[in-house]
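Researcher: Please translate sequence to structure tokens.
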Amino acid sequence: MSVLGTGLIGIDLASKIMRSDHLDLRLVAGRDAASPGLSQAARLGMPVATRGIHSLLEAGEPFDAVFDATNALFHAEHAEKLSALDTLLIDLTPSRAGHMVVPTVNKAEIVWHRDISMVSCGGQASIPILSAITKAHEIDYIEVVTTAATLSVGRGTRMNLDEYVETTQEAIRGFTGVKNVKVILNISPARPPATFRVAIALLGKGLSTDSVRSLVTGAARDIRSFVDGFDVKACTVDESQAFIAVEVTSSGDRIPRYAGNLDIINSAAIHVAECYAVDRLSALGRRRHEQGNRTRGTIAQAHPNP
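Model: Translation complete:
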């Protein structure tokens, strides 16, 4: 595994990979040898390189998976350069270039694509809930308001604010089938820093408190299987309207607790990579088993029982 990008997201990703039972960190690549993130990675004993995407291409052997934690404007170039290497590219930028994956909703689709988009932090927090509700109820309008502390929003994310909104809206439409969608992003300068929060407002038909709360509880339980700090703070229904608020606190050791925006998208990306790794190991085991059966069959034909 390799991480491309050494900002807030990249270094937390690298730390999570090192803690994983299924993943092996081989390289953290940045473009500036003097960047604080690259220096931090080196101090932590991580293998580092300073030529960005070229460091990955010159590594000698391809990586099974690469996490792109750079900038939406660069992702298409990275995908093109890695396309011939049979590498799974997991995109943490809001580029909309790859196949959008929200693990609790469409995890099975991971193995069919080589460029996976993790949508956005707001998308990962809201889409599992929205998907569950829209499968059970007719929804006419969705509004998602995301609030993140300014200290948890790095330079790359700030450069991609428009892309963040557009990508999140497109993903919500795609996963729910609802066309009337509005996404708002607030970057809060509050002190102490605001915990990452996503507020979801819905207009629809046939909504009931029992049904909506049950669907939200189930979706939240699934998310918590890999994002410990996901917490539903409010869930109310009033005739044709529903309101759900969630907060995410970080459990990472390289980012503060309020930076749940980083934690949820990184945890989802790690989960995607682990699912991919387990599938590859299973496929390798099946191939070895089939080869063993063919070998035994050949031996049996060459030495039939008397």
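Researcher: Any highlights?
Model: The longest helix spans residues 260-302.
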